[in-house]
Design a protein that fits this description.
Layout: E1 2-8, H1 11-25, H2 28-34, E2 36-43, E3 45-47, E4 57-65, E5 68-79, E6 82-94, H3 99-114, E7 120-122, E8 131-133, H4 147-163, E9 168-172, H5 179-192, E10 196-199, H6 206-215, E11 219-223, H7 226-230, H8 242-250, E12 259-265, E13 283-286, H9 292-307, H10 312-315, H11 321-330, H12 334-355, H13 363-380
Parallel strand pairs: 7-10, 9-12, 9-13, 10-11, 11-12
Antiparallel strand pairs: 1-6, 2-3, 2-4, 4-5, 5-6, 7-8
Helix pairs in contact: 1-3, 4-5, 9-12, 11-13
Length: 381
Protein backbone atom coordinates (compact mmCIF):
# COMPACT_ATOMS: atom_id res chain seq x y z
CA UNK A 1 0.00 0.00 0.00
CA UNK A 2 0.95 3.61 -0.43
CA UNK A 3 1.59 5.72 2.65
CA UNK A 4 -1.61 7.51 3.59
CA UNK A 5 -1.48 8.96 7.06
CA UNK A 6 -3.25 11.81 8.89
CA UNK A 7 -3.36 12.83 12.54
CA UNK A 8 -4.17 15.76 14.78
CA UNK A 9 -1.28 17.05 16.87
CA UNK A 10 -0.37 20.33 18.57
CA UNK A 11 1.83 23.39 18.32
CA UNK A 12 4.73 21.68 20.12
CA UNK A 13 4.96 18.91 17.51
CA UNK A 14 4.77 21.43 14.66
CA UNK A 15 7.61 23.50 16.11
CA UNK A 16 9.83 20.46 16.69
CA UNK A 17 9.34 19.33 13.07
CA UNK A 18 9.83 22.89 11.81
CA UNK A 19 13.17 23.28 13.58
CA UNK A 20 14.28 19.84 12.46
CA UNK A 21 13.57 20.22 8.75
CA UNK A 22 15.13 23.70 8.65
CA UNK A 23 18.31 22.33 10.23
CA UNK A 24 18.78 19.20 8.12
CA UNK A 25 17.68 20.85 4.86
CA UNK A 26 20.97 22.76 4.99
CA UNK A 27 23.09 19.84 6.27
CA UNK A 28 23.73 16.88 3.96
CA UNK A 29 25.67 15.02 6.65
CA UNK A 30 22.71 15.11 9.05
CA UNK A 31 20.44 13.90 6.24
CA UNK A 32 22.78 11.01 5.59
CA UNK A 33 23.03 10.17 9.31
CA UNK A 34 19.23 10.14 9.63
CA UNK A 35 18.65 8.23 6.38
CA UNK A 36 16.74 11.13 4.86
CA UNK A 37 17.20 12.95 1.57
CA UNK A 38 15.52 16.35 1.60
CA UNK A 39 13.84 17.29 -1.69
CA UNK A 40 12.28 20.64 -0.84
CA UNK A 41 10.30 22.89 1.48
CA UNK A 42 7.09 24.17 -0.08
CA UNK A 43 5.13 27.26 0.96
CA UNK A 44 3.26 28.17 -2.22
CA UNK A 45 6.69 27.87 -3.83
CA UNK A 46 9.90 26.09 -2.87
CA UNK A 47 11.83 27.98 -0.17
CA UNK A 48 15.11 27.64 1.73
CA UNK A 49 13.51 27.83 5.19
CA UNK A 50 10.00 27.21 6.40
CA UNK A 51 7.93 27.97 9.50
CA UNK A 52 5.40 25.19 9.89
CA UNK A 53 3.62 26.60 12.94
CA UNK A 54 3.29 30.33 12.39
CA UNK A 55 0.04 30.87 10.47
CA UNK A 56 -3.09 29.21 9.13
CA UNK A 57 -2.82 27.18 5.93
CA UNK A 58 -0.75 24.26 4.66
CA UNK A 59 3.00 23.89 4.28
CA UNK A 60 4.66 20.86 2.73
CA UNK A 61 7.96 19.07 3.20
CA UNK A 62 9.12 16.70 0.45
CA UNK A 63 11.70 14.05 1.26
CA UNK A 64 12.95 10.56 0.51
CA UNK A 65 12.91 8.09 3.39
CA UNK A 66 13.10 4.27 3.49
CA UNK A 67 13.04 4.17 -0.31
CA UNK A 68 9.88 6.27 -0.49
CA UNK A 69 9.21 9.72 -1.88
CA UNK A 70 7.06 11.28 0.85
CA UNK A 71 4.99 14.44 0.90
CA UNK A 72 4.51 15.57 4.48
CA UNK A 73 1.88 18.27 4.98
CA UNK A 74 1.35 20.53 7.98
CA UNK A 75 -2.05 22.24 8.15
CA UNK A 76 -3.32 24.74 10.72
CA UNK A 77 -6.98 25.68 10.65
CA UNK A 78 -9.73 26.98 12.90
CA UNK A 79 -13.09 25.30 13.40
CA UNK A 80 -15.81 26.48 15.81
CA UNK A 81 -13.30 28.78 17.46
CA UNK A 82 -10.76 26.01 18.10
CA UNK A 83 -7.39 25.76 16.37
CA UNK A 84 -6.39 22.39 14.90
CA UNK A 85 -2.96 21.14 13.86
CA UNK A 86 -3.07 18.32 11.30
CA UNK A 87 -0.18 16.38 9.80
CA UNK A 88 -0.56 14.13 6.76
CA UNK A 89 1.86 11.88 4.89
CA UNK A 90 1.45 10.43 1.40
CA UNK A 91 3.75 8.52 -0.95
CA UNK A 92 3.74 7.73 -4.65
CA UNK A 93 5.32 4.29 -4.13
CA UNK A 94 3.85 1.30 -2.35
CA UNK A 95 5.54 -0.18 0.69
CA UNK A 96 5.23 -2.83 3.41
CA UNK A 97 5.90 -0.24 6.11
CA UNK A 98 2.92 0.89 8.16
CA UNK A 99 2.03 4.56 7.81
CA UNK A 100 2.23 5.27 11.55
CA UNK A 101 5.66 3.63 11.66
CA UNK A 102 6.92 6.08 9.03
CA UNK A 103 5.53 9.03 11.00
CA UNK A 104 6.97 7.84 14.33
CA UNK A 105 10.42 7.27 12.83
CA UNK A 106 10.48 10.78 11.40
CA UNK A 107 9.24 12.33 14.63
CA UNK A 108 11.82 10.48 16.75
CA UNK A 109 14.56 11.89 14.53
CA UNK A 110 13.14 15.40 14.92
CA UNK A 111 12.82 15.01 18.68
CA UNK A 112 16.37 13.69 19.01
CA UNK A 113 17.73 16.62 17.00
CA UNK A 114 15.87 19.08 19.27
CA UNK A 115 17.77 17.77 22.34
CA UNK A 116 14.76 18.78 24.44
CA UNK A 117 14.13 15.49 26.22
CA UNK A 118 15.93 15.43 29.55
CA UNK A 119 17.04 19.07 29.26
CA UNK A 120 16.37 22.22 31.29
CA UNK A 121 14.18 24.43 29.09
CA UNK A 122 13.09 28.02 29.71
CA UNK A 123 10.15 29.52 27.82
CA UNK A 124 9.34 33.25 27.66
CA UNK A 125 5.89 34.78 28.32
CA UNK A 126 3.38 35.08 25.49
CA UNK A 127 5.60 33.21 23.05
CA UNK A 128 6.00 29.58 22.07
CA UNK A 129 9.78 29.49 21.92
CA UNK A 130 12.35 27.77 24.08
CA UNK A 131 15.97 27.92 25.16
CA UNK A 132 17.97 24.99 26.47
CA UNK A 133 20.05 26.20 29.41
CA UNK A 134 22.46 24.91 32.01
CA UNK A 135 20.79 24.39 35.35
CA UNK A 136 22.38 26.12 38.33
CA UNK A 137 23.79 23.36 40.53
CA UNK A 138 22.22 22.57 43.89
CA UNK A 139 22.12 19.47 46.08
CA UNK A 140 20.41 18.47 49.31
CA UNK A 141 23.61 19.36 51.17
CA UNK A 142 23.34 22.97 49.95
CA UNK A 143 20.01 23.78 51.58
CA UNK A 144 19.28 24.19 55.27
CA UNK A 145 15.65 23.83 56.18
CA UNK A 146 13.77 22.34 59.13
CA UNK A 147 13.76 18.54 59.28
CA UNK A 148 10.11 18.21 58.22
CA UNK A 149 10.66 20.29 55.10
CA UNK A 150 13.75 18.31 54.16
CA UNK A 151 11.70 15.11 54.50
CA UNK A 152 9.05 16.51 52.16
CA UNK A 153 11.69 17.39 49.55
CA UNK A 154 13.21 13.92 49.77
CA UNK A 155 9.76 12.36 49.45
CA UNK A 156 9.26 14.24 46.16
CA UNK A 157 12.35 12.56 44.72
CA UNK A 158 11.69 9.14 46.26
CA UNK A 159 8.15 8.97 44.85
CA UNK A 160 9.54 9.40 41.34
CA UNK A 161 12.40 6.95 41.93
CA UNK A 162 10.04 4.28 43.26
CA UNK A 163 6.80 4.89 41.35
CA UNK A 164 7.81 6.94 38.25
CA UNK A 165 5.31 9.55 39.44
CA UNK A 166 6.16 13.26 39.69
CA UNK A 167 4.15 15.09 42.33
CA UNK A 168 2.73 18.61 42.38
CA UNK A 169 4.15 20.86 45.08
CA UNK A 170 3.23 24.44 45.90
CA UNK A 171 5.97 26.28 47.83
CA UNK A 172 4.63 29.23 49.82
CA UNK A 173 6.61 31.90 51.67
CA UNK A 174 8.04 35.40 51.58
CA UNK A 175 11.23 36.00 49.57
CA UNK A 176 14.41 34.62 51.07
CA UNK A 177 12.91 31.74 53.03
CA UNK A 178 14.38 29.00 50.85
CA UNK A 179 11.75 28.38 48.17
CA UNK A 180 14.11 29.01 45.26
CA UNK A 181 16.88 26.89 46.78
CA UNK A 182 14.45 24.04 47.45
CA UNK A 183 13.09 24.33 43.91
CA UNK A 184 16.57 24.28 42.39
CA UNK A 185 17.50 21.23 44.45
CA UNK A 186 14.47 19.25 43.27
CA UNK A 187 15.15 20.29 39.67
CA UNK A 188 18.76 19.08 39.91
CA UNK A 189 17.75 15.77 41.45
CA UNK A 190 15.17 15.14 38.72
CA UNK A 191 17.53 16.17 35.92
CA UNK A 192 19.98 13.49 37.11
CA UNK A 193 17.17 11.03 36.39
CA UNK A 194 16.68 12.36 32.81
CA UNK A 195 13.49 14.25 33.63
CA UNK A 196 12.76 17.20 31.30
CA UNK A 197 12.40 20.50 33.16
CA UNK A 198 10.29 23.28 31.64
CA UNK A 199 10.29 26.67 33.36
CA UNK A 200 7.66 29.08 32.12
CA UNK A 201 5.39 31.88 33.27
CA UNK A 202 1.66 31.37 32.91
CA UNK A 203 0.57 32.97 29.64
CA UNK A 204 -1.75 32.55 26.67
CA UNK A 205 0.37 29.63 25.42
CA UNK A 206 -0.05 27.71 28.69
CA UNK A 207 -1.98 24.80 27.14
CA UNK A 208 0.58 24.46 24.34
CA UNK A 209 3.44 24.51 26.85
CA UNK A 210 1.76 21.81 28.90
CA UNK A 211 1.39 19.76 25.69
CA UNK A 212 5.14 20.11 25.23
CA UNK A 213 5.70 18.78 28.76
CA UNK A 214 3.46 15.80 28.00
CA UNK A 215 5.35 15.18 24.78
CA UNK A 216 8.71 15.23 26.60
CA UNK A 217 7.67 13.25 29.68
CA UNK A 218 8.84 12.36 32.21
CA UNK A 219 8.82 16.09 32.82
CA UNK A 220 8.10 18.78 35.36
CA UNK A 221 6.73 22.29 34.81
CA UNK A 222 8.14 25.09 36.98
CA UNK A 223 5.89 28.10 37.71
CA UNK A 224 7.59 30.90 39.65
CA UNK A 225 5.56 33.55 41.50
CA UNK A 226 2.22 31.97 40.78
CA UNK A 227 0.32 34.73 42.59
CA UNK A 228 1.65 37.37 40.18
CA UNK A 229 0.39 35.34 37.21
CA UNK A 230 -3.02 34.35 38.58
CA UNK A 231 -4.06 36.84 41.25
CA UNK A 232 -7.25 36.21 43.21
CA UNK A 233 -10.96 36.40 42.49
CA UNK A 234 -11.48 37.44 46.12
CA UNK A 235 -9.30 40.54 45.74
CA UNK A 236 -10.80 41.44 42.36
CA UNK A 237 -7.46 41.13 40.58
CA UNK A 238 -7.42 37.68 39.06
CA UNK A 239 -6.00 36.80 35.66
CA UNK A 240 -8.04 35.53 32.72
CA UNK A 241 -5.56 32.61 32.70
CA UNK A 242 -6.86 31.36 36.05
CA UNK A 243 -9.51 29.05 34.60
CA UNK A 244 -7.06 27.63 32.05
CA UNK A 245 -4.63 26.88 34.86
CA UNK A 246 -7.33 25.21 36.96
CA UNK A 247 -8.50 23.14 34.00
CA UNK A 248 -4.96 21.85 33.56
CA UNK A 249 -4.78 20.87 37.23
CA UNK A 250 -8.07 19.02 37.41
CA UNK A 251 -10.00 19.44 34.17
CA UNK A 252 -11.29 16.72 31.91
CA UNK A 253 -7.83 16.08 30.45
CA UNK A 254 -5.78 14.97 33.45
CA UNK A 255 -2.03 15.38 33.40
CA UNK A 256 -0.17 12.06 33.17
CA UNK A 257 1.41 10.80 36.38
CA UNK A 258 4.90 11.43 35.02
CA UNK A 259 4.25 15.15 34.40
CA UNK A 260 4.67 17.10 37.64
CA UNK A 261 4.32 20.70 38.76
CA UNK A 262 6.52 22.76 41.05
CA UNK A 263 5.08 26.21 41.77
CA UNK A 264 6.14 29.00 44.10
CA UNK A 265 4.27 31.97 45.51
CA UNK A 266 5.30 34.77 47.84
CA UNK A 267 1.78 35.64 48.92
CA UNK A 268 -0.55 32.71 49.49
CA UNK A 269 -3.49 35.02 50.28
CA UNK A 270 -3.26 36.49 46.77
CA UNK A 271 -3.47 33.08 45.15
CA UNK A 272 -7.01 32.17 44.27
CA UNK A 273 -8.52 29.72 46.73
CA UNK A 274 -9.65 27.54 43.83
CA UNK A 275 -6.02 26.93 42.90
CA UNK A 276 -5.36 25.75 46.46
CA UNK A 277 -8.22 23.25 46.57
CA UNK A 278 -7.14 19.82 47.90
CA UNK A 279 -6.16 17.53 45.04
CA UNK A 280 -4.84 20.21 42.75
CA UNK A 281 -1.52 20.17 44.53
CA UNK A 282 -0.28 17.08 46.30
CA UNK A 283 1.41 19.17 48.96
CA UNK A 284 1.63 22.79 50.04
CA UNK A 285 4.95 23.52 51.75
CA UNK A 286 5.11 26.59 53.98
CA UNK A 287 8.47 28.35 54.17
CA UNK A 288 8.48 30.68 57.15
CA UNK A 289 10.53 30.02 60.27
CA UNK A 290 14.20 29.17 60.45
CA UNK A 291 15.64 27.14 63.30
CA UNK A 292 18.92 28.09 64.97
CA UNK A 293 20.52 25.07 63.31
CA UNK A 294 19.34 26.39 59.92
CA UNK A 295 20.83 29.80 60.65
CA UNK A 296 24.20 28.32 61.58
CA UNK A 297 24.35 26.30 58.38
CA UNK A 298 23.35 29.30 56.26
CA UNK A 299 26.19 31.32 57.80
CA UNK A 300 28.69 28.55 57.09
CA UNK A 301 27.36 28.21 53.55
CA UNK A 302 27.86 31.94 52.91
CA UNK A 303 31.44 31.83 54.17
CA UNK A 304 32.19 28.70 52.16
CA UNK A 305 30.70 29.73 48.82
CA UNK A 306 31.71 33.40 48.91
CA UNK A 307 35.12 33.21 50.61
CA UNK A 308 36.08 29.53 50.58
CA UNK A 309 36.26 29.58 54.39
CA UNK A 310 35.76 26.21 56.04
CA UNK A 311 38.36 26.15 58.80
CA UNK A 312 36.88 26.34 62.31
CA UNK A 313 39.19 29.16 63.44
CA UNK A 314 38.00 31.32 60.51
CA UNK A 315 34.28 30.67 61.00
CA UNK A 316 33.66 30.18 64.72
CA UNK A 317 33.16 33.87 65.54
CA UNK A 318 30.45 34.11 62.84
CA UNK A 319 28.51 31.19 64.32
CA UNK A 320 28.79 32.34 67.91
CA UNK A 321 25.57 31.64 69.79
CA UNK A 322 24.94 35.38 70.33
CA UNK A 323 25.14 36.01 66.58
CA UNK A 324 22.77 33.13 65.83
CA UNK A 325 20.36 34.27 68.56
CA UNK A 326 20.38 37.81 67.13
CA UNK A 327 19.38 36.58 63.67
CA UNK A 328 16.83 34.18 65.17
CA UNK A 329 15.00 36.78 67.27
CA UNK A 330 15.04 39.33 64.44
CA UNK A 331 13.12 36.84 62.22
CA UNK A 332 14.97 37.78 59.06
CA UNK A 333 14.99 35.46 56.07
CA UNK A 334 17.64 32.95 55.10
CA UNK A 335 18.53 35.01 52.05
CA UNK A 336 19.08 38.06 54.26
CA UNK A 337 21.38 36.11 56.58
CA UNK A 338 23.37 34.72 53.64
CA UNK A 339 23.93 38.18 52.14
CA UNK A 340 24.45 39.84 55.51
CA UNK A 341 27.30 37.50 56.44
CA UNK A 342 28.85 37.93 53.00
CA UNK A 343 28.80 41.74 53.26
CA UNK A 344 30.21 41.75 56.81
CA UNK A 345 33.07 39.46 55.80
CA UNK A 346 33.73 41.65 52.75
CA UNK A 347 33.78 44.73 54.98
CA UNK A 348 36.28 43.02 57.28
CA UNK A 349 38.55 42.26 54.33
CA UNK A 350 38.39 45.87 53.09
CA UNK A 351 39.26 47.23 56.55
CA UNK A 352 42.18 44.83 56.72
CA UNK A 353 43.37 45.94 53.30
CA UNK A 354 43.20 49.59 54.33
CA UNK A 355 45.05 49.04 57.59
CA UNK A 356 47.67 46.72 56.10
CA UNK A 357 46.98 44.34 59.00
CA UNK A 358 44.41 41.75 59.96
CA UNK A 359 41.19 43.24 61.26
CA UNK A 360 39.96 41.29 64.26
CA UNK A 361 36.31 40.31 63.90
CA UNK A 362 34.60 40.21 67.29
CA UNK A 363 31.16 39.06 68.34
CA UNK A 364 30.32 42.57 69.53
CA UNK A 365 31.28 44.04 66.14
CA UNK A 366 29.08 41.51 64.34
CA UNK A 367 26.14 42.17 66.68
CA UNK A 368 26.43 45.91 66.10
CA UNK A 369 26.47 45.42 62.32
CA UNK A 370 23.43 43.14 62.48
CA UNK A 371 21.56 45.61 64.70
CA UNK A 372 22.18 48.40 62.20
CA UNK A 373 20.81 46.23 59.39
CA UNK A 374 17.68 45.41 61.38
CA UNK A 375 17.03 49.11 62.06
CA UNK A 376 17.24 49.80 58.32
CA UNK A 377 14.83 46.93 57.59
CA UNK A 378 12.39 48.26 60.19
CA UNK A 379 12.45 51.73 58.58
CA UNK A 380 11.80 50.18 55.16
CA UNK A 381 8.85 48.21 56.55
Amino acid sequence: DRINYAGNYNLAVFKIFSDYFNIIFQDKKKQEADGIEMIGLLREKFVDTIELYGAFGTREVWLKFLGLTIKMGFTIYKHNGEIFYEIFLTSAETTDYKSNYIYNELFQRALRESELAGSYITMPPDNFQWNIKNLEKRSMSDIYLPKKQMEDLKMFINVYSNNSEILRYLLVGVPGTGKTEACLTLMNELKKKKVTIIKTPICKYLSEKVNLAILLRPSIIIFDDLDLSLGSRNSGGYSNMLQTFLDILDGTDKLPKDVGILATTNSAFLLDLAAQRPGRFDKVMIFDELTKENIMRIILKSLKFNFNLTDKKDTEVFINSKVIDKYFTSQVTGAHIYNSISMMKLKCDMITKGQKKQFEVTVDWLLEEIENEIKILDKIK
